[in-house]
Amino acid sequence: ELAKANKEYVKANSMSRKERTNYESLIEDINPEALLADGFEDALIGHQATGGCAVYCYNRCLDILMERDKMTYEDAHEFMEFNVVCAHMGDFTPIFIHVFGKEQISD
Question: Which of 48, 55, 105, 50 is nearest to 85 (CA)?
Answer without folding.
Answer: 55
